[in-house]
Amino acid sequence: MDENVTQLLRKYQQGNAQAEERLWDAVYDELRTLASHRMRRERSDHTLSTTALVHECYLKLIDQTQVQWESRLHFYAMASRIMRNILVDYARRRTAQKRGGGAPHFNLENVQLSDSEETAHLFIALDAALSQLAEMDERMAKVVEYRFFGGMTEKEIAELLDVSARTVRRDWRKAKGWLARALDEDS
Amino acid sequence: MSLVTTHWQALNDALDAALDAPPNERAAVIRAAFPNEPELQEEAHALLKAATGAPMLLDHDAWQCAGTWMQQAVDDAMEGATGNDASGNRLSDNVEPGTTLDAYTIDELIDTGGSSRVYKAHRSDGLFDQVVAVKVLRQSQRRNFGERFAQERSILAALNHPNIAHIIDAGATSDGHPYVVMEYVEGTPITTYSNTHRLSIPERLQLMRQVMEAVQHAHQNLIVHRDLKPSNILVTDDGQVRLLDFGIAKVLDATGGPTGVDPYETQTGAHPLTPGYAAPEQIEQRTISTRTDVYALGRVCYELICGCRPVDADTTAPYAMMQAVCEGNLRPMHEQFADRPAAERDSIAAKRDCTASALDRYLRSDLRVVIEQAMACAPEDRYGTAADLRRDIGRYLDNRPVQARTATSWYQLQTFVRRNRWGVATAALVIALVGAYAITITQYSQQMRAERDKSEAVTSFLTNLFTASNPEMNAGTPNLTVREVMDRGTAQLDTSMDEAPAVRADLQTTLGRVYSGLGLYEQGEPLLREALALRTEGHGHAEDEADTRSALGYLLFRTGDYAEAERQLRQAVTLAENEYGAAHAAVASYLNGLAILYNESGRGAQGEPLLRRALAITDSPEARATYLHNLAVALQDQGQFEEALPTHREAIAAFRAQFGDEYPGRASAMARYAFSLHLNGDYEQAAAMHEEALALRRSILPNEHPHIASSLIRYSWLETERGNGAQAEEMVREGIAMLGQFVPETHWEMQAAQGILGLALLQQGQIAEGRARLIPVYRGFRAMFGPDDWRTQRAEQVLRQTGGVPSGPEGE
């Protein structure tokens, strides 16, 4: 338990930009360590989930007796962005290493998840499409980021964004539609 | 620029509208949004298809998608960093038959799981013959496993239960894979076993109760299974349950990484879990407790009962499934079952030795509440222990109300009716209507006023149901169950129906009335007072107010508050007369209530005309029996014992004709008859009648009830007069102790009982003590009934015989 990170989270919530940067670094380091540790240890792939990883990170870094529930959501939100960052970063390394980059086309619906290379390419493309989506509709992109990369529940997202769970679900479905189309068109 | 970016807003709006519409109307919504723009129409259709179509990448778990290449990236990084790290080696968890692991020789592979392989093996050190199962874990990072296992061993050794497969030994293969040696169990997973044997739902539940008992045993030894699932719950050919892998997860958690202490291993249960059976706290890696096993037990029951998983059939993606579990978005059994094709439903039901519709009824029964409580999202909402769950399933199997907190407001009534199979057809109707009523209240409370007529009809059904469970009205009902129904009903009322105050007051009145019938005046009074407050605020009509006042009046009268009781009952009569006219059944009923009050407060002369009027009004045989009885009591109260006798007999006969032998009203009539016989001097017949009435009351009323106390007290008086002082003393003391639980010391019946105790003591020669108890009673009678009343005179007579009558108000 790191008292400092707990304090950082509180300052970040109060809008302290410096705290945000330092919190980002702390969470980034912890998530990356956890991720690689997990990877080494747990070879059976069904034992991990994004949700579990993010929650574990939270439990390790934050003294829960010192913060309120909303803080947890803000933490998850940041962790979602970081997870996106880490996964896409690894994906870039993976594709650069094996193929030298470049992805021809994708179909989000028929992904061979067992094909690590194709999946890695897909993540990179998804990351770009998500950034485009954010320009059109920021909330929709956030919903995807929180849910897919952060493993947050609809309920948590709704609370964080201060909208109804129904709105979150609708945003999610629309976003799936937009992203599928965007990746398809890029091909 | 694509259409998507140039026409973002229009497409977005169209998509919103389409998603808001029912699925079969969405195409039309899109066509209507772009009537003259086929390209946009097409684009919108494509977006909609992608939005609502088959699961895609985004429906999976990001981490798991990334897992494959993350793994390699990390491995590559590790190779460079640590070179000769053991994890760099591609270790094999495959063990060839014939291999020897410590004292065991591997015979064959019998199971391959996600995190382990299980082999059949035998002991080969010649010490003794033993067939064992050896579970070899895939993970290779667990050093000191054997050492750590040894630490756990004493705990695991405590797990000596016939339904739990023992863990015998542990170690590591030459490749560094940890293994655990377990007792070899010849059996089939509980789900398969139940299906091949076509076990009925009750049989399946009994089997699960065996499982729960074993789990409870482990919990008592502080061992949580953490991975209960059908493949770990085997049933042997002779129908015995055997649980596998108990303690394994715990051993794994206690073991560390290469350094011995694993900095990332918290107490949050980070171990391979089985998606689909894992509890939310396992997925979110929060603290594991015995309730984690309770969840898994509920989950296994769910599947065993309805043959389906609790998530949508198309929810196969781990993310969606875990989310559903974490958010508690699991679907009830009957919904999942209903979603299956008809042929599959029939097949599932056939394996449960019943029809699909019979199974559907099971799925909608209390079982649903039990399973949902076991599988509650938050651990604290679940059953606290496996034993609690087991007990509740036992209660379900006995047709008793389950303890599980209720999801619906009418479910206890349903259980109650099911348990008391009086008038099954009527009961079914009541359930249907009460069910409709509950829905009306919870969902359409805004429309309550419009629905007023309907809800009134249903309220009367509800009232009938409750009233029928009132021992004063209907015999043979186990009181405990009534209490349970009542207390829950009251608790529920506390938190519901704020939007429908009139209905709330109806129900409060009903509940208050039943409590009062049970002698639970403390519970009843606040309900009736609240109801009356709502009535006077204008919620309900005049006749409703009359009803509530009469119920409150009766209760107050029972507690001895005669003045207030009389006021309430008089108002009830007046309200009813104004509302219905003087000759209405309701008026008769309130007149009767008022007359009872007069009778009991020694004003039988005032009660008598009211009862004669009530008898003239009523055409209900049931009501007539009651009024006759009270008329007899009114005569008795006036000392007209001989005149009362035929009326008593008429009342007893009327009760028997209407309600049969075992009816509390008949017992009351008999007790009063005995009293009149006694006071009329017929001691032998009086004793026999008291005996009969007391026996009947004891058999149909709760162990402690004011009526039983009353019988004891009156009977004891007779016994003093028959010269049986010691017996009388014993009886009256029991009566006083019992009555004291229901009414205050100052209640006249309590005082009278003290007087009788005084008589009993006097008879045994304890003059001073006897007189000390009798004198205050004499004074009380004199003040209450007057010097010429028969009660006062009898007391005076006794005092005169034993040393004189005190003249002053105080002292002797």
TrEMBL record, chain A:
Keywords: Sigma factor, Transcription, Transcription regulation. GO terms for biological process: DNA-templated transcription initiation. One of its GO terms (molecular function) is sigma factor activity. Residues 3-184 form the RNA polymerase sigma-70 ECF-like HTH domain. It comes from the Bacteria. Pfam families: Sigma70_ECF (PF07638). Belongs to the sigma-70 factor family. ECF subfamily. This is RNA polymerase subunit sigma-70. The lineage of its organism: Bacteria, Pseudomonadati, Rhodothermota, Rhodothermia, Rhodothermales.
Automatic annotation (TrEMBL), chain B:
This is Protein kinase domain-containing protein. Keywords: ATP-binding, Kinase, Membrane, Nucleotide-binding, TPR repeat, Transferase, Transmembrane, Transmembrane helix. Residues 104-397 form the Protein kinase domain. The keyword Nucleotide-binding applies. CDD domains: STKc_PknB_like. The keyword Lipid metabolism does not apply. TPR repeats lie at residues 546-579. Gene3D superfamilies: Phosphorylase Kinase, domain 1, Tetratricopeptide repeat domain, Transferase(Phosphotransferase) domain 1. PROSITE patterns: PROTEIN_KINASE_DOM, PROTEIN_KINASE_ST, TPR. It comes from Longimonas halophila. The chain crosses the membrane at residues 422-444. InterPro entries: Kinase-like_dom_sf (IPR011009), Prot_kinase_dom (IPR000719), Ser/Thr_kinase_AS (IPR008271), TPR-like_helical_dom_sf (IPR011990), TPR_rpt (IPR019734).
